[in-house]
TrEMBL record:
UniProt xrefs under Gene3D superfamilies: Jelly Rolls
Gene Ontology CC: cAMP-dependent protein kinase complex; cytosol
Taxonomic lineage of the native organism: Bacteria, Bacillati, Actinomycetota, Actinomycetes, Mycobacteriales
Short name of one Pfam family: cNMP_binding
Coiled coil (UniProt feature): none
Domain Cyclic nucleotide-binding span(s) in chain numbering: 30-128, 165-267
Organism for this UniProt entry: Mycobacterium ahvazicum
UniProt protein name: Cyclic nucleotide-binding domain-containing protein
Domain of life, source organism: Bacteria
CDD domains documented for this protein: CAP_ED
InterPro entries according to UniProt: cAMP-dep_PK_reg_su-like, cNMP-bd_CS, cNMP-bd_dom, cNMP-bd_dom_sf, RmlC-like_jellyroll
Amino acid sequence: MLAVARALLRTDARVAATRERVGALDEIELFAPLTNVLRERIATQIHREEVGAGGVVTYQGEDGDSFYIVESGTLDVCVDGRHVRSLAAGDFFGELALLRDTTRSATVRATSDCRLWVLPRRAFLTVLTGFDPTGQTIDAASTERQANMPATANGRDAALASAPLLAALPAETIRDLAASATTEGYDTATVVFGENDPARDAYFIVDGRVDFDRAGERIRALGPGRIFGEVAVLRPGATRAATATAAPGTVLWRLPGEQLRAAVSQS
């Protein structure tokens, strides 16, 4: 009997939670046209996420598996370190990567404490295909955003080509190097590499700041659009001359040393 009672309590709790989410969905303009049946189905899959001011929700270049609706708070959208728009209650984001099956086209960072509704990919596609008015709203917004997105959002090529080290390289070489790059994001201050570490890869700063210390003393700081770590990478057997620390919210592209050496050898 006790086990049955506990099971009933858990069921009641789930039902209550679903009803709460249905009520919340009623307040979101994007979901207003949904039928009650579809809204209840979405309510079983959506969840709320809280992000503190300064927290990063998505990083440009990472894989995307969720769609976000802003319940409260404000966020900034940045592409290659440049601010392109701001978001507030009722706005949504994250659809581009899901619709086009690509990586995230922008970094989204909270500028105040935020509450977000998060919809997994499968549930998002259910909304998109299950009810035309809502699907059309999302598709229209994503088409407009894609059209207004800076060109560098369509790939890493132009951003890398702007770096002095790579500016003279052929477009095809830049494209190959960009394809080999991987995105790394840091929510907290993180050491990228330490002084005297072996030099394997170089890095391009997409957003944020990287500080450099030698023997415990700050020697410089670099921001978006700069490459670092390349000097040691281009000298076989060299080690790191300083410790590099990424500030909170920094986004980097890791450039594999082997590919970078091959690219630069063509200049």
